[in-house]
Task: inverse folding
């Protein structure tokens, strides 16, 4: 049964994470709001920590996220149990007067929280383990209670080491028994997810600066910083197209056997030839509910897809 148009979110959203029952909406300024399976909500949004969330993933029914403020030179990684009521945290003014690590403030309602001494660059989870990269430090893997499983040296992409931006980590993901870490030069570093050892290092044969990667089993969408999209199937290039503008998000549509892309004031269905629908606002996320695809826009409104 199709759902009614969901209510507008009370903030500008940055992303949506799927839970076992419902969804978690994250705002541009670090707001959190739980949505039900029909994308509706009854609570008010809260800010467990008063700065933006850089990376986020779901482990069990816990939000694991990183918070970063370059001005205050402050970074946190914490886990929040979403079975509990979300609570408001400290203010930005509170952060400005903290004097030492002993008095460091942490996200409210956390089950564990850590002060990070380096910028978090990427974060991923397979639902049980958490992997992340810290700038100039290394790669780490934790279990859900934050106990360390393994650590590995900071990523190096040998195949692209002579190219510009070859040391810039952009994203990572769990792929079955492997962890894939990408750099902006198009290098992929593959680690064994169980112990962090390097399995292989390779270069994707595209001529672009990579900004993000979306994947679904054998399908990958490599997104460039100027709006190009490269659809790979089992690492082989199937299609290349120019979306003309930054790509906010992409989701694999198994019914249509194609990618649905949230572009710059447009949505795109990447069939043999891209099909496009223009919008006045910017779609930042798309998801399928009760057989229908919905787009979430930067003003917090939901609209049923026209594609």
Result:
């Amino acid at each position: 049964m199709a759902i009614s148009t969901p209510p507008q979110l009370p903030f500008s959203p940055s992303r949506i994470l799927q839970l076992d029952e419902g969804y978690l909406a994250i705002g541009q300024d670090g707001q959190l709001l739980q949505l039900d399976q029909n994308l509706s909500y009854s609570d008010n949004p809260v800010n467990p920590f008063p700065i933006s969330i850089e990376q986020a993933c779901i482990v069990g029914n816990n939000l694991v996220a990183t918070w970063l403020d370059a001005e205050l030179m402050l970074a946190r990684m914490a886990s929040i149990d979403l079975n509990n009521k979300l609570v408001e945290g400290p203010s930005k003014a509170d952060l400005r007067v903290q004097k030492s690590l002993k008095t460091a403030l942490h996200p409210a309602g956390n089950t564990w929280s850590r002060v990070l001494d380096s910028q978090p660059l990427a974060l991923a989870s397979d639902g049980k383990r958490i992997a992340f990269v810290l700038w100039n430090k290394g790669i780490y893997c934790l279990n859900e209670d934050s106990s360390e499983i393994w650590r590995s040296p900071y990523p190096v992409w040998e195949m692209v080491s002579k190219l510009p931006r070859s040391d810039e980590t952009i994203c990572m993901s769990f792929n079955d028994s492997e962890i894939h870490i990408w750099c902006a030069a198009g290098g992929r570093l593959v680690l064994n997810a169980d112990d962090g050892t390097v399995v292989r290092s390779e270069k994707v044969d595209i001529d672009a600066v990579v900004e993000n990667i979306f994947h679904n089993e054998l399908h990958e969408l490599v997104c460039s910083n100027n709006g190009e999209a490269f659809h790979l199937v089992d690492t082989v290039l199937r299609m290349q197209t120019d979306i003309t503008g930054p790509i906010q998000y992409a989701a694999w549509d198994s019914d249509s056997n194609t990618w649905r892309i949230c572009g710059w004031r447009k949505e795109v269905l990447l069939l043999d030839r891209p099909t496009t629908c223009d919008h006045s606002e910017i779609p930042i996320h798309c998801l399928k509910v009760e057989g229908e695809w919905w787009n979430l826009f930067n003003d917090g409104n939901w609209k049923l897809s026209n594609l």
User: Anything to note?
Assistant: The helical segments are 92-96.
